[in-house]
Amino acid sequence: MAIDASDHITETNRNAWNAQRFDAWVAAFGSPEAEAAKIVAEPERVLRRLSPYLGDVAGKRICNVQGSHGRVAVALARLGAELLVIDFSEENRRFALALAKAAGVTIDYALCDIMEADNLGRAHTFDVLVLELGILHYHQDLDRFFATMRKLATDRGMLLLNEFHPVQRKLFWADGPHDYFQTDLIEADVPNPDIAGASLGRCLYRFWTMGDVLTAIIKAGFTITRLEEHPDWTDSTIPGSFTLVAHA
Ligand SMILES: C[S@@+](CC[C@H](N)C(=O)[O-])C[C@H]1O[C@@H](n2cnc3c(N)ncnc32)[C@H](O)[C@@H]1O
User: Fold this and answer.
1) 1 vs 8, 106, 144, 186, CA distance in Å?
2) Mutate which of 29, 138, 141, 173 for ligand 1 pocket (most atoms within 8 A of beta carbon)
3) Contacts of 168 by beta carbon, 8 Å cutoff, 6+ apart
């Protein structure tokens, strides 16, 4: 894909993720102070999908890739991990840093396109990379994305990917392509925690097959050690999400 097309897609998505996003999180979670109090009281609630795979995180260096509002990062920091969030939304960063402050922890939050993470000077720094729910469909070059993940991870570092299942997104999601093998970009709303609310903006998504995802991870030099598929939250007869563990 030409560089300018890829830049256009990234800018479209960045604009959508900056539109009224701080206010959207406040409407969904309450103020950063209110949400921080809940995370401090029960960090495991936020981490319930990740904890079974993570083990003890105290003292670990963790990168929360596209970590959004920072709830996962703050919960991990409360459990003693050292956190860097990488995300390109300033509004997300504002919420995350206020959340961390109110929770009494420090997290680092790099505002950048994840594809430029090489330039952060953090090569081979992280024991664990955490990627949660709604990551891969922002990218048009999955090989380059996972090559970037490999550069961030230490040797033997863990990649923990909890993601929407390709079958759910491609075949069953209302705005999806309804064709498992379709490769075109799809324009659809940026996630809005108020599902009945007005659109906060439009994103350009590229949905990947399970084969695309696994192949890109292996090509980047990771060894996959676990892949679990989980039932969809509304229709338990189809896969809704999956969790993949791999090591560099
Ligand atoms: C659906 S969220 C991630 C899930 C997160 N657990 C949540 O609940 O919000 C997707 C995140 O990816 C970020 N993002 C999308 N494309 C990106 C890119 N190219 N570089 C950095 N961040 C990106 C968005 O800003 C957003 O915070």
Assistant:
1) 11, 38, 12, 16
2) 138
3) 232, 238, 239, 240, 241
Asked whether 211 and 140 are in contact (CB, 8 A), the reply is no
Residue 14 near residue 88 (C-beta atoms within 8 A):
yes
Q: How far is the CA of 92 from the centre of ligand 1 (A)?
A: 9
Contact 204, 185 (CB under 8 A): yes
Which of 88, 142, 207, when mutated, tests ligand 1's pocket best, judged by the most ligand atoms within 8 Å of its CB?
A: 88
DSSP string, 150-172: HHHEEEEEEEEEEEE-HHIIIII
Q: What is the pTM of this model?
A: 0.97
CA 141 to chain centre: 16
168, 190, 189, 171: which is closest to 180 by C-alpha? 171
Measuring CA to CA, which residue among 167, 21, 147, 30 is closest to residue 91? 21
Contact 229, 39 (CB under 8 A): no
Residues 6+ apart with CB under 8 A from 16: 190, 200, 201, 202, 203
Residue closest via CA to ligand 1's atom 6 equals 132
- Which domains does the chain show, CATH number per domain? 2-157+176-205 (3.40.50.150)
**pLDDT per residue over 112-162, tens digit each?**
999 999 999 999 999 999 999 999 999 999 999 999 999 999 999 999 999
- Reduced to 3 states (helix: H, G, I; strand: E, B; else coil), residue 112 is coil
